[in-house]
Every structure is written in C-alpha cells, then in structure tokens.
Design brief:
One of its GO terms (molecular function) is DNA binding. The chain has 198 residues and is of the alpha+beta class. The chain contains 4 helices and 9 strands. 26% of the residues are buried.
Length: 198
C-alpha cells in the first residue's frame, strides 16, 4: 500500500527531514490525536441484509450481521477489543459497531490508520484465554506525532490516495456484480450478443 510506504518514509525513516527526527515532533499518547470508545450490542441482529435490517454490524475482524439502525454515521476505524486483535477496518458509511470492538475517530484519520496498523497488540493484551484490549490501554499507546503542518500535508496526500483506492474498489464491486448477473444469462443463451458490432 502506497500510504504505508509514505508513512514509513516520513515518520519512521525520516527521509523528509534528512534522517533526523525533528525537535518539534514529539512522542504522545494516542488519545491526544484520536478518540477511542467501545462498540455496543445491537438492538436486533439478522444474518441477512434486508429492508428491516439494512445496516452492517461490524465485529472484531469483519461484518458479522445486520441490524435496524446505525450507531455510527461518521468516518471511523474499528479494531477488535475481544478476540481478534490487529485487524483494522475502515468505515465511512452508516454501521453498528458491536460490543467486541474499539471505535477510533480522529481528525487525522489516515495518520491514525497507519499507527493502528503498526501497534504491537500482543503487548497490550490483558486476556489469557480470551484476548482482551481495553480502551484505557489503547489510549495510552505512545506514538510519534509530527508538527501540525507536516501532519496536515500527510493527511491531505494520504486521504487523496485512499479516496482513489476506495473509488476503484467500489467500481470493482459493481463490475463483479454486473459480471455475476450477466454471465449466467450469457451461458444459458438468455442473453444474445452475437449481433453486437464491436
């Protein structure tokens, strides 16, 4: 992923600052740049997306069902609180984050996303038989935070790259759906394209 390479170049290898960490960059707790909260149990749960349950329920590692309403309509990052740790999910459409997740919001969305991918989750795991990460432990993770100008430049650049990636991904989903609809009709002869002039 291009954004990951850029993050490493700027904030780990310090290539934009001649290999030196600038004096105005500082190590701070994650809570200084991001809000961290727990998800909640959904009001209803269905295995199917339908008129009554059109909203995705987000679990620790993937969508785990559907419900009737959203508890988030903003741009969020989600990771597992109980069970699976280290899978980072991005959402900017209405969803319900389940009670086994941590929900992260930040004005520095792309920067925070990169940080979340680099955390050693085993070092903050509290559970023995059932892995557990608390909000408090996540908030206290220490991260390198650059000056405001550098952060804004990274956020704009990374945001632009990720917007293009998401648009391409959405287009691929639409094309796959169209293929899955048309291919059986072509194979059965229901749809005839022999007279098309290409």
């Amino acid at each position: 992923e291009q954004v990951s390479v850029i993050y490493q170049s700027w904030f780990e290898d310090f290539e934009i600052t001649n290999g030196v960490c600038p004096a105005n960059w500082s190590y701070q707790e994650l809570s200084t740049i991001a809000d961290i909260a727990s998800g909640k149990r959904p009001p209803v749960k269905s295995d199917n997306c339908n008129e009554k349950t059109p909203i995705s329920i987000v679990g620790a590692a993937s969508v785990m069902g559907f419900t009737s309403e959203a508890n988030h309509t903003d741009k969020i990052l989600v990771t597992g609180r109980v069970g699976t740790h280290g899978v980072i999910q991005r959402f900017n459409t209405p969803c319900w984050t389940s009670d086994n997740t941590l929900v992260i919001t930040s004005p520095y969305y792309e920067f925070t996303n990169q940080i979340l991918h680099r955390i050693d989750y085993s070092s903050i795991n509290r559970g023995s038989t059932q892995p557990l990460i608390t909000q408090g432990d996540m908030k206290k993770v220490v991260v390198l935070v650059p000056d405001e100008d550098t952060l804004a430049i990274f956020e704009k650049f990374a945001g632009s790259l990720m917007a293009k990636w998401e648009a391409n991904n959405n287009e691929n989903v639409k094309l796959a759906s169209l293929r899955d609809t048309l291919l059986p009709k072509l194979m059965s002869g229901e749809l005839d394209v022999s007279n098309l002039n290409l």
